[in-house]
Amino acid sequence: MLRIHFTASDVAGVRMAARPDVLWETILSFHRLRDRRGPVVYGEWRSDTRPRLNGETRLLAALVPSRGYFPDFLTPPEGLHGLDEALQAIRETPVERLRSELALLGADRAGGRTVPHSLRALAEGGGEPFSRLLGTLRSYHRAAIEPYWPHIRARVEADRALRGRALLDGGADELLASLPPMFRWRSPVLEADYPVARDLHLDGRGLLLQPSYFCRGTPVVLRDPTLPPVLVYPTTHCEAPTVHEPGGSSLAKLVGNTRSAVLHAIGDGGTTSELARRAGVSLASASQHAGVLREAGLVATLRHGNAVLHTLTPLGAALLGGARRRVAGAVSAAPAERLYARNGPVTS
After folding, report:
1. How does pLDDT run across 183-204, given as a tens digit for each residue?
2. Could you read off the pLDDT of 55-79 as tens digits, one per residue?
3. Which of 33, 52, 208, 293 would you call most buried, defined as having the most Cβ atoms within 10 angstroms of its Cβ?
């Protein structure tokens, strides 16, 4: 079990990541590539991704074992700002930290505190081995993550909207209580299913909540307790990371395919830009269709500064909920264990 200990200032300092983290998604997707679970969500992605790989898995497998610890330096906070910034942060990792974390990787594997033979050159920092690592991460990201980034971003934004609604309704307590089912908020401790016993004391530093498309089964935290605390947890999903065109549903027949897509995209709330990305339409089209839905009483629109936030009205939610119930009745949902089954110890 993982136990995260909050002070009053930590509860006030809980915050949501603004977007998906490119390196958390990259590293965690490598776990999903090697397991066979979750075929409904990841099966098609695995089949499409593997042929695009060209030897990247050999170096990554040495750094990211299928179970257990992988080095914290692989997921710097700069991953929120894009791949270039993230890889530059990895390049600037101090040599002492490289050696320490790679030695810990060796200890976790073999019971000793020696750097694995295949990674000894990397532990010296810089040079050809380090350039090879950065090139491998970039190449793997291009093959496994980049083609699916709009879908990954849409799922993370939908999760942010859900957590934001909980925060507005009940504050940080409600936000922490709204996390996926593997979490239990028992103030002042957040508990979670976890491969090993672990206590993380925030000590006034707050906590960054990072939803992740490729996180699965259990959350992930950094191994080094002195690093800024981040909690990576799974988004809730049961569809493959592809964009499916709407069509054929009774809701689409009623309001049209594009407006049906926009209504689905609103979910628990979103700006016009977010609706456009989630629905796969232009900004102007999203704005136009949101306006029509608003005039029909299905959507409420609030302006906050320069941003416009759209949410479903009770009528819109009822209409959307009826369509979802009909789809659920026609297509059996993936079993819960497919969504949250554990993949063995996966920690950082």
Report:
1. 999 999 999 999 899 999 999 9
2. 888 889 889 988 888 999 999 999 9
3. 293
Cα atoms in the Cβ-side hemisphere of radius 13 Å centred on 244:
9
Nearest alpha carbon to residue 32 among 237, 332, 320: 237
- Sign of the Cα torsion 261, 265, 266, 270 reads negative
Contact 268, 161 (CB under 8 A): yes
At 255, which helix (H) or strand (E)?
helix 250-255
Nearest CA-CA partner of 315 in 275, 272, 255: 255
Q: In what order do the strands lie in the sheet containing 189-192? A: 183-186, 189-192, 2-5, 198-201
Reading across the β-sheet that carries 14-16, which strands appear in turn?
A: 14-16, 207-212, 230-234, 220-221
Residue 225 has pLDDT above 60, yes or no: yes
Residues 102-136: tens digit of each pLDDT: 888 877 655 555 566 667 778 777 688 888 899 99
How many beta carbons lie within 10 A of that of residue 326, not counting itself? 13
Q: Is the peptide bond before 225 cis (omega within 30 degrees of 0)?
A: no
* Mean confidence (pLDDT) of the chain: 82
SS3 call for 204: coil
Residue 311 DSSP symbol: E
Q: What is the pTM of this model?
A: 0.73
Residue 112 carries which side chain, given as an amino acid letter?
Answer: G
Contact 191, 315 (CB under 8 A): no
Exposure string for 174-212, b = 16+ CB within 10 A, e = fewer: ebbebbbebbebeeeebebebbeeeebebeeebbbbbbb
* Other beta carbons less than 10 A from residue 113's beta carbon: 11
Q: Cα-flanking dihedrals φ and ψ of residue 315, to 5°?
A: -65, -45
For residue 1, the SS3 value is: coil
Q: What percent of the chain has pLDDT over 90?
A: 41
